[in-house]
Amino acid sequence: MEVVNEFLQPRQLKALxxxxxxxxxxxxxxxxxxxxxxxxxxxxxxxxxxFLQKPGLHYHSPRLPLLDAVLARLQPRALLxxxxxxSPRQETHVEYGMHVDTRRHGxxxxxxxxxxxxxxxxxxxxxxxxxxxxxxxxxxxxxRHTGASCTDAGFRLVLNINMFx
Length: 165
Hints:
Layout: E1 2-4, H1 10-20, E2 28-31, E3 44-54, E4 57-60, H2 68-74, E5 78-88, E6 108-113, E7 120-123, E8 128-130, E9 135-140, E10 145-148, E11 155-164
Antiparallel strand pairs: 1-9, 2-3, 3-4, 3-5, 5-11, 6-9, 6-11, 7-8, 7-10
């Protein structure tokens, strides 16, 4: 696992966050994780799928160029998925459930935190990465982890990328 602080240049982060929080940015309501024993109010988030490539399916959003600075820095050999998650504040921390992002052997997951809040990413081994704006955590996509809601901001905003490096 690798944690990189100040991943993007400040102006790049500011431009990305402004673009995705603009009134015209398209979001979809979604379950956070399917088939979990969570109250419905705890299992909802807004998402925007930038890119998805898997057997029989290829999709890329017209807004994919918003990720140019992120992808230029990551330099993936192949992109599998890029998705933005906006999870609303909860009264208490809600951990959504341990999972892996993909079972594709050799894949890497990158999580870029776009706002600072007291939410976090928790790994099965107990490692916790705090949601700090412009922090990136890279890890083997087969590592079980969970996101956790925030209680001190309006929302937790993360960019999740699965790729081959």
